[in-house]
Design brief:
about 290 residues; alpha+beta; 5-stranded mixed β-sheet; 7 helices; about 60% helix
Length: about 290
């Protein structure tokens, strides 16, 4: 009877274990299916990004800009735009790239500022130039032969409002001058108002000159783009540095004398301490007697 009961209990235990195992297996299977679905959705969602990355890598390495971002722009006849561009290049032949840079600038504009130096184990040159705005895009394409383009920043200042205001000021001053001239033609020279009208005419002429000059200044800013170019040569290897052994010997001797000086200062204190340690029993007996 006991054997039958034990066998019956064992069978129930095995059945429970099998049912739990099947349940866990079904849950694991369901979880694996969900993971596969999520992975497939992530792969599908990631495909456009991969294609974009692949397209961006065509024609250049990951570290270089393989194309010029600034695209040719139509001449904005109704806008007065001042272009400012900043470019940085890495070159393998610094002298040749420097010569090409100066040639390109001289053929399409003029140089405002230039500096060159050797720092951080490489040559560097920075040039600021005024380039004809109509030739800006072509000049940037010509500059690609200097080396690998690393940085390109482009900014635009719109002077249209200032230009419109100056044009209104010019028309207003011209109208004012015409009225003053007509009034002066009707006033005899001996009249006291003649001098006042002449002063007003002179003031209007000065204001007209200033407005016309500001108008010319805006046209000049628009006609010439400001381009800043930085050129970096190849990086040289780190030089071998041999320390001076004379300095090491001097430091050693100076350190010895400083240590000797410190020992001389501490010697009296050391002697007092040794004497106390040597006579510690007698000194201890004195304190006990007291």
């Amino acid at each position: 009877m006991n054997r039958v009961l034990s066998f019956f209990m064992m069978a129930i235990f095995v059945f429970l274990m099998l049912s739990c195992g099947n349940k866990q297996f079904s849950e694991k299977k369901r979880a694996m299916a969900n993971l596969k679905e999520e992975a497939s959705e992530a792969y599908i969602a990631d495909e456009p990004a991969k294609s974009l990355n692949a397209e961006s890598k065509v024609g250049g390495s990951k570290k270089d800009l393989s194309f010029v971002f600034l695209s040719p722009y139509p001449v904005a006849k109704d806008r007065y735009l001042e272009f400012m561009v900043e470019l940085q290049y890495d070159t393998k032949n610094f002298e040749l790239s420097r010569k090409d840079l100066l040639d390109i600038v001289s053929q399409n504009g003029f140089l405002n500022y230039s500096s060159a130096a050797y720092e951080n184990l490489r040559y560097r040159m920075t040039a600021q130039a005024n380039i004809k705005a109509s030739e800006l895009y072509n000049v940037i394409k010509l500059l690609d032969k200097l080396g690998s383009l690393k940085v390109e920043n482009t900014s635009v200042i719109d002077h249209t409002r200032d230009m419109a205001w100056n044009q209104r000021k010019v028309k207003r001053e011209q109208t004012r001058m015409d009225r003053i001239n007509k009034a002066m033609a009707q006033v005899p020279p001996q009249n006291k108002t003649w001098k006042e009208k002449e002063d007003a005419l002179e003031k209007s002429e000065d204001s007209l000159d200033q407005s016309q000059h500001e108008e010319w200044n805006i046209q000049d800013l628009v006609a010439w783009a400001k381009v800043t170019i930085t050129l970096y040569g190849p990086l040289d290897s780190e030089p071998i540095s041999i320390p001076s052994f004379n300095n090491a010997l001097a430091l050693l001797i100076n350190g010895f004398f400083k240590l000797l000086y410190l020992l001389i200062i501490l010697l009296p204190f050391a002697l007092v301490g040794l004497f106390i340690w040597w006579q510690r029993k007698r000194i201890g007996g004195w304190f006990k007697k007291k």
